[in-house]
Automatic annotation (TrEMBL):
Protein name: Lipoprotein-anchoring transpeptidase ErfK/SrfK
UniProt cross-references to Pfam families, sorted A to Z: LysM, YkuD
GO cellular component: extracellular region
Family: Belongs to the YkuD family.
Molecular-function GO terms, alphabetical: glycosyltransferase activity; peptidoglycan L,D-transpeptidase activity
Annotated metabolic or biological route of this protein: Cell wall biogenesis; peptidoglycan biosynthesis
Residue stretches in coiled coil: none
The keyword Cell wall biogenesis/degradation belongs to this UniProt entry's keyword annotation: yes
LysM domain span: 144-188
Catalytic residues identified in the record: 79, 95
Length: 189
């Protein structure tokens, strides 16, 4: 039987803005790792997922370890890499890249089924309750998200996706729609 969070108490949390992966055991932060995340054209999808498979030495751009994620619509994972200078940047096709020595350290501690929370804001880490109507992926009903770039406004984002400012504010539960930050993931309804 694969251990679940209730059995192991382990979980991973990834902040795509600060580009950090946090490894928790229960409520205790065990370790923090720098990561690379998806570039603006192929962002890392925010949401609640689980580790679905693990591969030793996948090779090439995947480095020395692969931990696949249950993100629908693609083959996403947490993996090593063959380009250490990419760590700390938004450059991947949506996967989370780690230094090989870091993923080698983390890999044996993370069982299949471990929860993974991916988010794109600068607030302290928390695993929120699921929001009604948004699904498990955290994406809008059409599955689109947008990564805020420097100088963007919500009005311009709404206009470019042919939706309303009010719809974007509601879909993202934004407390202050005038305060969006570069790297923040916006759900497009």
């Amino acid at each position: 039987m694969t251990p679940s969070m209730s059995e192991t108490g382990k979980r991973l949390s990834i902040n795509t803005v600060t580009r950090k992966l946090y490894y928790y055991s229960g409520e205790r932060l065990v370790k923090e790792y720098p990561v690379a995340v998806g570039k603006p054209s192929t962002p890392t999808p925010p949401g609640q997922y689980k580790i679905k498979n693990k591969i030793l030495n996948p090779g090439g751009v995947l480095g020395t370890r692969w931990m696949g994620l249950t993100i629908p619509g693609g083959n996403y994972g947490i993996h090593g890499n063959n380009n250490p200078s990419s760590i700390g940047r938004a450059v991947s096709l949506g996967c989370i890249r780690m230094h090989n020595h870091h993923v080698e350290e983390l890999f044996p501690q993370i069982p299949i089924g471990t929860p993974v929370h991916i988010y794109g804001h600068t607030e302290p880490d928390a695993i929120p309750a699921a929001s009604p109507g948004k699904g498990d992926t955290g994406a809008g009903r059409n599955g689109k998200t947008y990564t805020v770039r420097p100088g963007d406004t919500l009005w311009e984002i709404a206009r470019s996706f042919n939706t309303t400012l009010e719809a974007i504010i509601a879909a993202n539960d934004l407390p202050d729609p005038n305060r969006i930050t570069p790297g923040q993931i916006i759900i497009i309804p």
